[in-house]
What we know:
alpha/beta
Amino acid sequence: MAVLKSALRWTGRALGAGLIGLIAIGGFGQISAMGDEPSFDMVEVEPGRRLHVECEGEPEAPFALYDAGAFGIYSDGWWIKEELKRDFRVCLYDRAGMGWSDPVPAGVSPSPDWHVEDMRRLARAVGAAPPYYLIGHSMSGLRLHAFASLHLDELAGLVFIDAARPAGFTGESARRLMNRFSGAMSAGVFAAQVGLARVAAQVLPDSLDLPRGPARDKRRSIASVRHHKASREEVRAVDTNAEWLTRELAQEVPVSVFATSADGGRNAAVAEAARAISGFGRVHGLPDENHVSLLSRKIAPLIAEDVRAMAAFRAARTGPG
């Protein structure tokens, strides 16, 4: 719940900044999508449908996949990728319908468990074999927990970055909060349609200090009507009654948690259970950081250090991989 409230606050700030800019310099009009040419590879994950993917590292190295939060794209994981690429095959991607990636198939609900299967399709498409290290920010926590619930044997480790936990997404209170979040996303769609989001994309600071290309793509996603709509549909597709929400198995693999609360937030209990069950569980409470700065160049080495420690732990127990 705290993660969702934090995301709502950041959405409100973005819209507010855009409104100031619109008043000051006037609307620039909307853009429907990201532009003409994707920045990286378009990888076919099933016939006729591709995801926008950036992978670095040796093909035979352990595989790590970064999954962005509710409104994020590949660029949010840029610094994590930079820290891991020397000894992991690490991939960043835009989920279906977001960023540069092709839309979700017609008639398909982009629920967390559907995206889990898309992660698996992506891993196979880039030639990666399980087990995988999954790193997720914010609402990606639901997808990481879903992956652990549905395909535990394919995981080598999980990293939750200020991430959601299924225990907070059941019942009437969760439904109300998800409705509020969906409403905020609808406001984002409207802002993109009238050109407000495009202004916001120009005036908002790049708090991650990204290289030129990823920073450009991040701004384009903020301005894109298509991206906003896909983000909203993802939020609406979260079923607070889904069976996997009641089965928390993440603690059976190594778990690392980074959170803005000193106690590690909701996933701290998952990491503590992982320490007892799998033998590896770490909690990093970083109250001086915020929901976005946990993805910064400063924090990325700490995240990478934990992923390497997971790999060393696994190698000591089962051999390299």
